[in-house]
C-alpha cells in the first residue's frame, strides 16, 4: 500500500516504509491529533512522537515490543493527554523542549535544545526549536541517507501555513522566521512534512506560499 498520510480517528493507521525507518501515523482524540511511531528497522527500537490521546490506540500501535522513548513536541494539552499512561505502561524515557517542559505534567527525562540529536536505534533525529506557537516547540528532522528528509513539525507547520500564534504579531514573526530559517532554508522541496494534526505535505508544496503567509500575518 502506498503511504498517503491520511488518517481518521478510529480508523486504521498508515505506514510509511523507508529503508532504515518505519513511520506509523494514527489520529487520536477529539482534536484529531496525529501520533507517530518510529521504528528502527535494524534494531526494532521504537520511539513515539506525541502521546496525544486514546491510550489504548497508542499501546495497540506500539505492540508488545514497547517503546524506548516518547517525544512531546510542545506543551499544549491535546498533545500529552495519554503521556502519563503510555509512560507507565512502557517505562519509556521522556523528551520535551527545554522551554516547554514545565508546561507538561509528566516530567521530561531529557530536556531538548535546538540541534540536539535524539536516537531511535541506529536512526538519528535532529531537534529544531521553533518559537511562536509555544516558547519551546520542537520539530524533529530525519535526514534519510537513502532519500529525502522527513520532518515532524508538531503544531508549527501545516499544509497552508504555520501554527496558530493567536493574533500575536511578535509570536507570528518569530514562528515564521524560525520555520523559514531552520526548515525551509536548509531542507529541500522533497522534504516530507508530518504535522500534529491533519494531512501531510511537502516543503515544495508550501514554499511558494511563504510570501502570502507573511503578508496575511498568520
TrEMBL record:
Keyword terms: Hydrolase
Short name of one Pfam family: Lactamase_B
CDD domains per the UniProt record, alphabetical: metallo-hydrolase-like_MBL-fold
InterPro entries for the chain: MBL_Glyoxalase_II, Metallo-B-lactamas, RibonucZ/Hydroxyglut_hydro
GO MF term set: hydrolase activity
Keyword Transit peptide in annotation: no
UniProt keyword Hydrolase present: yes
Limits of the Metallo-beta-lactamase domain: 32-197
PANTHER family: CONSERVED PROTEIN (PTHR46233:SF1), HYDROXYACYLGLUTATHIONE HYDROLASE GLOC (PTHR46233)
Stated name of the protein: Zn-dependent hydrolase
Source organism of the structure: Streptomyces griseorubens
Amino acid at each position: 500500500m502506498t503511504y498517503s498520510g491520511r488518517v481518521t480517528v478510529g480508523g486504521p493507521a498508515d505506514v510509511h516504509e523507508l529503508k532504515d525507518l518505519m513511520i506509523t501515523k494514527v489520529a487520536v482524540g477529539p482534536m484529531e491529533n496525529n501520533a507517530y511511531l518510529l521504528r528502527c528497522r535494524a534494531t526494532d527500537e521504537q520511539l513515539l512522537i506525541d502521546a496525544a490521546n486514546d491510550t489504548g490506540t497508542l499501546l495497540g500501535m506500539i505492540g508488545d515490543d514497547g517503546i524506548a522513548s516518547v517525544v512531546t513536541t510542545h506543551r499544549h494539552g491535546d498533545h500529552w493527554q495519554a503521556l502519563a499512561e503510555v509512560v507507565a505502561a512502557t517505562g519509556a524515557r521522556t523528551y520535551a523542549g527545554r522551554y516547554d517542559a514545565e508546561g507538561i505534567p509528566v516530567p521530561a527525562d531529557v530536556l531538548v535544545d535546538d540541534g540536539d540529536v535524539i536516537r531511535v536505534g541506529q536512526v538519528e533525529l535532529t531537534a529544531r526549536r521553533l518559537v511562536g506557537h509555544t516558547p519551546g516547540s520542537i520539530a524533529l528532522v530525519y535526514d534519510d541517507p537513502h532519500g529525502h528528509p522527513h520532518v515532524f513539525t508538531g503544531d508549527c507547520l501545516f499544509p497552508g501555513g504555520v501554527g496558530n500564534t493567536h493574533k500575536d504579531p511578535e509570536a507570528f514573526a518569530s514562528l515564521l522566521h524560525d520555520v523559514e530559517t531552520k526548515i525551509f532554508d536548509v531542507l529541500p522541496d522533497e522534504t516530507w512534512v508530518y504535522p500534529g494534526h491533519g494531512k501531510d505535505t511537502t516543503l515544495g508544496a508550501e514554499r511558494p506560499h511563504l510570501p502570502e503567509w507573511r503578508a496575511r500575518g498568520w
